[in-house]
Amino acid sequence: MHDKNKSNSKFFIITARHVVENRADLFARVKIDSKSNKYVILDLPRELWVFNPSPTPGEYLPVDVALMQIPPTEFIKTFLYCDKNEDCGKDMKNTQLQNQLKESPNVMDRAIFFGFPGGDVAKESLEPFARTGVVAYTAFNPDVRIDGKLVPEDSIYYVDSPAFPGNSGGPVLWEPLPPGAGGVFLLGLITGTNIVGRDYTIVTRPEKIAQTIHHARTISKMSDSAWRETIPELPLKCGPDNIQTRDPQSP
After folding, report:
1. 235: preceding bond cis by omega (within 30 degrees)
2. Residues of the chain with confidence (pLDDT) below 50
3. Is 28 a domain residue?
4. Which domain holds residue 80?
């Protein structure tokens, strides 16, 4: 996410909080050649993650957003974010830029989401697996429990398409109708799935991403040596990505 501020621009990598908060230092492979699998490595030190600042009562899970400020680079394609009262500016061709972090969608809007679900893509793959579906449910007070705790109100919505381990933290994009109209917009990130006879995906709302960016603007720190050409020495403490699932006993 490219955070366009009036005074400066910052770049953040964003994922689901549950993917990173209990792990040690991580790294990401970033593809730099569209015609091959050539990549560079982005270090993700555990202490630099910034979490959504919303209070977390004991019966609720935290809002599932984590981000880290990273150095600017030509390797990553970014989504532009600016506040409603900020000017997103213009590009090199003097074209007015648009805020690409969209507001929460409506039921029956179409969405696309991406990830690397285990068993569906190769472990070394740099091309994500895509799924699509309609937005199925947008109520602000869903009665959903994950690991025995309630999901915070006004934090999620559902997409009528299954997700699997490896999708967590992946981007959800608005699928414009007709195709090609209106550009590419971010609708949120994957938080979990219901696999108890109802194959839908739980998505954290884009407003919670914006809230986390606001928080990170003032407190985030950045590693100036984040980019490297080789994978860090192993082993790293990287457990499997067990995507969050709705409790079977929940309504």
Report:
1. yes
2. 6, 235-241, 247-251
3. yes
4. 2-232
Cβ atoms of 158 and 201 closer than 8 Å = yes
Q: Which of 241, 53, 227, 226 is nearest to 155 (CA)?
A: 53
| Residue 58, domain member (yes or no) | yes
User: Which of 15, 85, 27 is CA-nearest to residue 52?
Assistant: 15
Residue 22: predicted pLDDT: 85
Who's near 14: CB < 8 A, 6+ residues apart? Answer: 1, 65, 66, 67, 169, 189, 209, 212
What is the predicted pLDDT for the residue at 235? 47
Nearest to 226 by CA among 77, 15, 26, 22: 26
Which SS3 state, helix, strand or coil, does residue 214 take? helix
pTM of structure = 0.86
Q: Is residue 249 part of a domain?
A: no
CA distances from residue 1 to 64, 65, 77, 94, 148 in whole angstroms, order as listed: 16, 13, 9, 21, 31
Count: domains in the chain: 1
250 domain residue, yes or no: no
Angle CA 221–115–233, to nearest 5: 55
CATH code of the domain covering residue 21 = 2.40.10.10
Residues near 21 by Cβ (< 8 Å), separated by ≥ 6?
Answer: 49, 51, 66
- Tokens representing 46? 């555990």
Question: In this structure, what token pair is assigned to residue 148?
Answer: 């025995």
Is 209:167 a contact under the CB 8 Å cutoff?
A: no
CA angle (227, 228, 232) in 5-degree steps? 115
Residue 198 carries which side chain, given as an amino acid letter?
R
Q: What is the dihedral of CA 142, 128, 69, 3, to 10 degrees?
A: -70
- Beta-strand ranges (E) seen in 22-109 are 26-31, 39-44, 50-51, 66-70, 80-81
